[in-house]
Amino acid sequence: MPVEGVRVVAFDVFGTAVDWRTGVARAVAAAAARRGAAVDEWAFADAWRERYHPALGAVRSGRREWVNLDRLHRESLDELLDRFDVGELFDDRERRELVRSWHRLPPWPDVGPGLERLRADRTVAALSNGGYALLTTLAKHAGLPVDAVLSAELAGTYKPDPHVYRTAARLLDVRPDEMLLVAAHHWDIEGARAVGLRTAFLERPLEKGPHGLPDRAVDVTSDLAVTGFTELAEHLAPPAAA
Amino acid sequence: MPVEGVRVVAFDVFGTAVDWRTGVARAVAAAAARRGAAVDEWAFADAWRERYHPALGAVRSGRREWVNLDRLHRESLDELLDRFDVGELFDDRERRELVRSWHRLPPWPDVGPGLERLRADRTVAALSNGGYALLTTLAKHAGLPVDAVLSAELAGTYKPDPHVYRTAARLLDVRPDEMLLVAAHHWDIEGARAVGLRTAFLERPLEKGPHGLPDRAVDVTSDLAVTGFTELAEHLAPPAAA
């Protein structure tokens, strides 16, 4: 049965729309080659992403003032380069370049065609913990067809804080139940449900690599469970006439 | 001599990118026909726009808390319908429809091709006093090729308050002098210059109709004076390699 009344499709970005692991690992491998450093790029990418939740949590809990994701990425990068014993080989310029690899990530193949289709009859927005500039660059670089970029930065905190979802709905002037969040992570789906958004869990079996343990649809409660953005478009009822 | 170092082209919307007068007058004429009301649609559109600056000024000065442009448009519409002696013919639904005519305005013909060209090698953003939802709908409806929508709503005040331009540069993570504002109004150009943005005055001889008095390039101090977005693209130096 199609889900009705959805005026805005808001989608999570890292993991849900783009393959951060491949994009970051490639950038790490290229930088390591330039610097003559021996680094397992996949292990490095995984370790970098592992620091994501603790770093965001410090801001979300109020233990730390708002800083954007670029800054958090830089801090965890500095720590990781030392832990991988290659700190002395990467200067500031190379580190800045690595932080920017999160601005240029490859989309999963279903994203472009799926968003294009969704966008034909409703508003499509990125809703991510990435900063506003990061998301703007990422959407442009990946050629994502979006109508709006809704960064957590606009709320001054991070998902799954309720304020992020509510700010998104307010800015697009829709009720929470007129906005559907698409995400590959249970905590994001739960955060959206808690403030009354509709939700679509999108399973990304390869998000964390061939041996990773991504979230699975069977473990997540959501209005819809889909395997890609194209399939999502099939599950939404056409919008009612304005 | 081309202007160098511009990473973001931010453009004003009403008058600069879209022909508000024609769009609004058509909507007023259609509504008047539906309601059997005799209204000079061009005079009505002009009078509606005349209320723009006083209404925004109340928020900018702090005399009034933040309200978005839709709300201000509705208040001035209610007043104007009475002044045009047709108030009793327009119910709430029709009034809401008229307010939404500001979300669906025709672009000037140079805008699509010009923005497409500008967007090929830098970030292009709408920077308007229209609300975030209004601008998102307007850009989508008019098919404007933009990378970002930067509403004054994100700053909680209206142009030419310096906070609006500074918020835009901060969100896109550029220095003020790396952002160029394109506008057809002297007060907007002056506001942008005051905080260190680069500026391009774009003359729109027909913005206020065949007998109107639009701002003229000869009266405005700006880095560039152009007659359209396509010409603007010719005046910007290619971006330096990152």
Please, could you describe this protein's structure?
Two copies of one chain form a homodimer. With 242 residues, chain A is an alpha/beta fold. Chain A has two domains: 8-19 and 106-235, Rossmann fold; 20-103, Orthogonal Bundle (DNA polymerase, domain 1), CATH 1.10.150. In chain A, 43% of the residues lie in helices and 11% in strands. Chain A has ten helices and six strands; from the N terminus they run βααααααβαβαβαββα. The first copy, chain A, has helices spanning 20-35, 41-50, 52-60, 69-83, 92-100, 111-119, 132-142, 162-171, 186-194, 229-235, and strands at 8-11, 123-128, 148-151, 179-183, 198-202, 224-226. In chain A, strands 3-2-1-4-5-6 form a six-stranded parallel sheet, sandwiched between helices. In chain A, β4 (179-183), α9 and β5 (198-202) form a beta-alpha-beta unit. In chain A, α4 (69-83) packs across α5 and α6 runs parallel beside α10 (229-235). The longest helix of chain A has 16 residues, at 20-35. The radius of gyration of chain A is 18 Å and the shape is globular. The interface between A and B is medium-sized, with 20 and 20 residues.
In N-to-C order, the SSE pattern of chain A is: EHHHHHHEHEHEHEEH
Number of helices of chain A: 10
| Overall number of structural domains of chain A | 2
- What is the CA-based Rg of chain A, rounded? 18 Å
Mean pLDDT of chain A: 96
Cα distance spanning the termini of chain A: 22 Å
Number of strands of chain A: 6
Percentage beta strand of chain A: 5-15%
Task: Give the oligomer, counting copies of the same chain as homo and different chains as hetero.
Answer: homodimer
Shape of chain A: globular
Q: Which CATH C-level class of the largest domain in chain A is it?
A: Alpha Beta
**CATH architecture identity of the largest domain in chain A:** 3-Layer(aba) Sandwich
Task: Flag low-confidence runs of chain A.
Answer: none
> What spatial order of strands do you see in the largest sheet of chain A?
3-2-1-4-5-6
Percent in helix of chain A: 40-55%
